[in-house]
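Weekly puzzle thread! Below is a chain. First person to post its structure in token form gets bragging rights.
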Amino acid sequence: MLSKFEYSKNFLKNDDLLICPICKEKLILMDHSLVCKNKHTYDISKKGITTLVSHSHIKESKIYNYELFLNRRNFIQKMYYKDLYDEIIHIINEHFNNKINIVDLGCSEGAHTMNILNLLEQTYMYYGFDYSKVAIDMASCYNSDVRFYFVADVNNVPIKDNSIDLIIDLLSPYNQSEIKRLLKNNGVFIKVAPGKDYLKEMRAAANISTYDKDEEVEQNLNKNFKVVKKKHILNTFPITKDDFKLLLKMSPMYNDKVFKVPKIITIDLMVYIMNGEKL
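Winning reply:
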């Protein structure tokens, strides 16, 4: 089995899309680094990590730490989101039958989209971007010849214009200008946002306010994209005490208070499908 570093080099040898976040020139693999013609250089660590940002210092969050991302991954792997994965695969199958370039914005530690990629029949090149070094360090365990995870800013994505077939954004902030820049004219943008009842039992138990921005999310999307379709995914599942503990500890609003464990949890998600047509 190849090391993370060996997988990263294999991926980058086949890449033709990465650009320098400073000068926007094409990045070329040279030894253990990505280098543009203006000599901006981005090293590849032994762990297969590359940081593609336009400045030298990234301040890590004390809240979004290793423990939070580990609990997030462990909860996601319980497959409470399986219906979401199946819906995204259905959307991909409707639009694509050949090799696709995929960008994942706010990929975190990689578990959500890895569950999707495991179901994908199409061949692909996958680029995962997140600003957290801790998250990308965890995601790098999924590195392969066709998957690579980068520390990068979703407001300055180091990918060339009009080159991406599919952009996925799962429950993360996004930059509409960057999405329009990246997408091919026949590309697809899938935005997943919380519904108003998303994890409502956890919010009630932890005394966290209910989510009420679903209408605002849809209005913003309609201003900037042609919404081809939307799908509402609403399911209620029984939840164990251990799973609920994982859920609490993956929340940035978690504290050490004693909570009453609910018997069920609600997964309420809106899936929006936009094409690359410019408004």
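Puzzle host: Confirmed. Bonus trivia for everyone else. The longest strand covers residues 183-194.
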